[in-house]
Design a protein that fits this description.
This protein has 1 helix and 10 strands; from the N terminus they run αββββββββββ. It is mostly beta strands.
Length: 159
């Protein structure tokens, strides 16, 4: 591994570690009901399609987008794909992207496109964010420029 790639990997790891408490209790939570709404809705036994101001909410977290398509297996929402002006929002953070796929079975949401993660004043941008809502593990890959960028402010509380 080249020195530049090693430094880049280390910087990303430090940047992600600097974001205090991403997700955790505010993330999509197993066992809680999932509420949904949109301008237009269609549902079959195997799918849920939300169009226009589509939103799925579970606990304190939500996914908003122009369109949300859900796959239902055995009466349970097993996969969610959101497209067009996608936001994954918790009380602590907002993640914006062009497209997102959330898989409840492995607690993973993958956002792609021009991804922007904000938490307080901290901001990180890239092309693809893979985030585990249960473990809080996150990995950001670069966009078309191949770079991940961020601005992080130290804790000013003195604690």
């Amino acid at each position: 591994m080249s020195m530049t790639r090693t430094l880049t990997t280390a910087a990303i790891a430090l940047a992600l570690a600097a974001l205090p408490g991403i997700g955790g209790a505010q993330s999509f939570q197993a066992g809680q009901p999932i509420m949904w709404g949109a301008d237009e809705v269609s549902r079959t036994p195997a799918t849920l399609s939300l169009r226009g101001r589509a939103e799925l909410t579970q606990g304190d977290s939500r996914i908003r987008a122009d369109r949300v398509e859900g796959t239902i297996a055995d009466g349970v929402l097993s996969r969610v794909e959101a497209t067009g002006d996608v936001y994954f929002v918790t009380p602590e953070q907002t993640i914006r992207g062009d497209r997102a796929v959330y898989t409840p079975a492995n607690d993973t949401i993958v956002l792609t496109g021009d991804v922007i993660l904000t938490q307080g004043e901290n901001v990180m941008t890239g092309g693809r964010l893979t985030y585990n809502t249960r473990t809080e593990a996150a990995e950001m890959d670069g966009g078309s420029s191949g770079r991940v960028q961020g601005v992080f402010y130290p804790d000013r509380s003195g604690t």
